Amino acid sequence: MMMLLGITSICCIAIAVVAFLAISFILLLQIFIYMTTGVCKSQKKMNGKTVIITGCTSGIGKETAFDLANRGARLIMACRNVAAAKNLKDQFVKETGNNNIIVKKLDLSSLKSVREFAEQINREENRLDVLIHNAGTAETFKKKTTDDGLEMTMATNQYGPFLLTHLLIDLMKQSAPSRIVVVASELYRLASLNLDNLNPTTTLPAYLYYVSKYANIVFTMELARRLKGTGVTANCLHPGLIDSGIWRNVPAPLSWGLQIIVKGFFKTPKQGAQTTIHLAVSDELDNVTGKYYLDCREYGLSQSIKNHTNAKKFWELSENIVQLKSTDPKI
Ligand SMILES: NC(=O)c1ccc[n+]([C@@H]2O[C@H](COP(=O)([O-])OP(=O)(O)OC[C@H]3O[C@@H](n4cnc5c(N)ncnc54)[C@H](OP(=O)(O)O)[C@@H]3O)[C@@H](O)[C@H]2O)c1
Ligand SMILES: *[C@@H]1O[C@H](CO)[C@@H](O)[C@H](O)[C@H]1NC(C)=O
Ligand SMILES: *[C@@H]1O[C@H](CO)[C@@H](O)[C@H](O)[C@H]1NC(C)=O
């Protein structure tokens, strides 16, 4: 009897110790995330500046859009889900007092939609100071192909933004100094770019997400080189690992474990938006181009991703993939 009690209490103490350690670990980690997260300290106002941000109905994009609206920018919300974007716009207007916010339909997975969007912008806007490529999608297993015959993840995350950049570049040059900001990811380190298969319709989509983020960085570096001397800069970033909608396509039961990690250890969308905001507004970035940022600081890239020869080849092949016309602006 005595011995049984002894064992029970030892077990209880052991469980309590483990629970205490686990909670302390999570708390310490949260403090660590809080302390190390980069925060955009710039107080810069954006009145008189026009900003386009893609995919701002949820996650990081939503927080970035709110911040830019709050700084007084003319904000163009380029979104696939127009109804959701309009609701959000009303909320932004109410919360920031900025009436200069508009919603435009843009589905980056459709070359036609990208062209229609750009035509409208070129017709209706007289300047474009900041273009933020934020929209992104990730699938785990489900292979999808767009109406243009392109693999869905690559089309949405890379080729749509590539075409859009071309179609808006003249307006950005006229508005110089102007900035292009690309939301990439550290997860690029898990991938590489196969120049012999740039439309990988049979590859596992989960892997293609990393490939698309690798492509985003190669694209930004080459874009910056091509735009030297125009007054248009191009930089990219890793926002951190964020509790956003990007994980929504992970199927159960994988998603159950993931949710615990996402909720317990990842940054909030507001924290995740800081580096994008920094690159979009901060005076420090005035003449900075062709750089990669993390936590509002410049960050190193792997050797392989910096290969100019491959970047140039990727660029030229991409022009064909997005069916760039001879009448379109060349970069
Ligand atoms: N979350 C992270 O940990 C993390 C880490 C590194 C990088 N990133 C990058 O951060 C960016 C923002 O992602 P998030 O984490 O904020 O995810 P999110 O909450 O899923 O937001 C993604 C946004 O992109 C939009 N979008 C998706 N497909 C689109 C399309 N075909 N055309 C136009 N818009 C489209 C979505 O619109 P709908 O509402 O219509 O779907 C949504 O507004 C992405 O580029 C992502 O790769 C995220
Ligand atoms: C950026 O470059 C312009 C033109 O060369 C110059 O006038 C300006 O002072 C520079 N800004 C910074 C922050 O270096
Ligand atoms: C870039 O990649 C090519 C092969 O794709 C290789 O031949 C070349 O040596 C690389 N350049 C550098 C500077 O690493």
TrEMBL record:
Coiled coil: none annotated. Pfam families: adh_short (PF00106). GO terms for molecular function: oxidoreductase activity. It comes from Aphidius gifuensis. This is Retinol dehydrogenase 14. Keywords: Membrane, Oxidoreductase, Transmembrane, Transmembrane helix. The chain crosses the membrane at residues 6-35. InterPro entries: NAD(P)-bd_dom_sf, SDR_fam.
